[in-house]
Amino acid sequence: MSTLVGASAGCAQMPPSNRVEDMPVSDTGITVPSPRALTGEEISSLPAATHGAVIPGLLPFSQVTSVPATGYTLVRDAALYGPDWNRPVARFPARNFLGEPSVVVGVAEQDGYVSVLTPARRELPSARPAAATTPAAAQTAAWIAREDLAEPRPITTWIRVSVGEQTLTIFERSSEQASFRIGVGAAQTPTPTNVTGYLQARYFDPDQGQVDHRIQLTSLHATEQDEPYAGQDGGLIGAHFQDVADGAVSHGCLRLDAEALAEVDALPLGTLVTIVP
């Protein structure tokens, strides 16, 4: 897990087609209403879908297949919608916790709206019913108005992590570029699997001794514990440098040696990250 600056964080052969559950799609016969325009004040009053937020109205996203992804920045803070496009559930801040332009990854588009992955949770693992047979969602998605998105660019890089093989493989389109042994989550604090997220930010963290190698923060969260690391990590999944970078040893994060981390650090933000068992 990785502690954020000013906050806290945790710790594909193209990934098989991206699915966002419960989203209205026009070819099913569902009529998708056009939401009314929101004022700036209304948008600012919505909860921010940031790395530390828990917003039940977001949609779970668990796909590990390849629908072409597009990277964007935001024109402004923008409203996010769940299955009801007339009722916003959150806002996507135009700038992230580092004060940098937020990286937005779109995975589908329809009727002037784009399905984007978000850095927030929709639920805490501790809030799951005792009888639940599936873990908490590691990744969320929501709909955003296309007019709120700027500077589209195709995302052609992606990372495939195999927890069982303890490997991280980098691809450019469908071409494997490099593969490395890594450390993954221990049995009690597992790395989430069967999910795709993205690289959302990178930063140094002197408090954790990460002054030579930047932490690579993904949009993914722990699925078994709310805060696996030290009780205040937020459950975020990052990739970071560690002297011993193999084995099932972490609190859910990915432990990389210097060579592997340098390769990941060179990838553009927005790069997809697929984790398989």
UniProtKB/TrEMBL annotation:
Enzyme active site: H240, C253
Keywords: Cell shape, Cell wall biogenesis/degradation, Peptidoglycan synthesis, Transferase
Organism expressing this protein natively: Scrofimicrobium appendicitidis
Renumbered residue ranges of the record's region Disordered: 1-24
Pfam families reported for this sequence: YkuD
Protein name according to UniProt: L,D-transpeptidase
Known EC number: 2.-.-.-
Enzyme class: transferase
